[in-house]
Design a protein that fits this description.
Helix content is about 75%, strand content about 0%. By secondary structure, the chain is mainly α.
Length: about 120
Amino acid sequence: MTRERALQFVLRVVAVIFLVGVYPLMMFLWPGGWRWQPNQPEYEQMILGVYATLGLFLLIASFRPAEHRSLIAFTAWSSLVHAGIMMVQAMSHPEEHGHLMGDVPALIVVGVALLALMPRKAVIH
């Protein structure tokens, strides 16, 4: 598998998870690792909307990743920053420790994978 094919695969997996996977993880499958307490429906709707939108754009980017470097870089770095902030918050609140095994490592994996597979800058001649 080439680097570009691997990136396309990762982008599509992340896109699908962002589009349709975050909601069931938060609400049904593993709330302790994905949903903050006390439940905040307004925040949850906002974050689900943001991630679904990002997922749609990542799916579009998966067809021509080299043309979408800035979106891929934004997704990678914002995922790492988001994970870092959540890690500090989860460590500060014992009732949130489930996030240290849920959404925190998931976002770190997304960020590292996208940075590792990021398309190289185009060389202009």
